[in-house]
Amino acid sequence: MPEDISPDAVQPDAQETEDAQETISRELREVLGAALGTAQEHMEQNGGFLPFGVTLADDDELRLVMISPGELDADGNIDAETMLTDVIELLRQGREGYRAVAFASDVTLPEHGTDGIHAAAEHRSGGLMAAVVPYDVTAEGFSFRPLEADGHDAAVWTG
Predict the structure, then answer these.
(1) SS3 (DSSP) at 11
(2) Which pLDDT does position 1 carry in this prediction?
């Protein structure tokens, strides 16, 4: 290292690193919360939801990413797993313009004996966050249980 450059000049300031981590965490919570809230709202209004994404763009706007369901299968069902794969691929294709993304789907939770909303969030700087909200169907509608942290491997910003 040249003698006229101090080691402190090439290492990021601890406060800058802490601020950056705080920003990443806040942005992950923002898109994850938007995904979970939107899914709950759709369930209460429509009785369910199809997989979708949420983006936090460089212009600070949150946007929903939805796709049309494909052809119904022989039993008249929508292939939600393929839809989720397609949503993730769309997010992957547009990732250069996003700081953070999240995607949500309706899942079966055998360990809870019920279904749940699963959402995962990713940040272009490498942060990950995921959660599941188990729910029960009641005579009055849906009863949502407390949010639980969940594991997630990067799907949008991979390698």
Answers:
(1) coil
(2) 43
* From 47-56, 73-82, 116-125, the region with the lowest mean pLDDT: 73-82
How many residues are recorded in the chain? 159
The C-alpha angle 92, 96, 102, rounded to 5 degrees, equals 50
Torsion of CA 24, 115, 106, 45, to 10 degrees: -100
Residue-wise pLDDT for 61-96, tens only, equals 999 999 988 777 777 788 889 999 999 999 999 999
Report how far residue 79's alpha carbon sits from residue 62's, in angstroms, rounded to the nearest whole number: 26
Residue 77 CB coordination number (10 Å): 9
Q: CA–CA separation, 58 vs 37, rounded Å?
A: 22
Exposure of 112 in the CB half-sphere (CA atoms within 13 A): 17
For residue 159, the model assigns a pLDDT of 62
What the block records as the tokens of 30 is: 């923002």
Cα separation of 159 and 157, whole Å?
Answer: 7
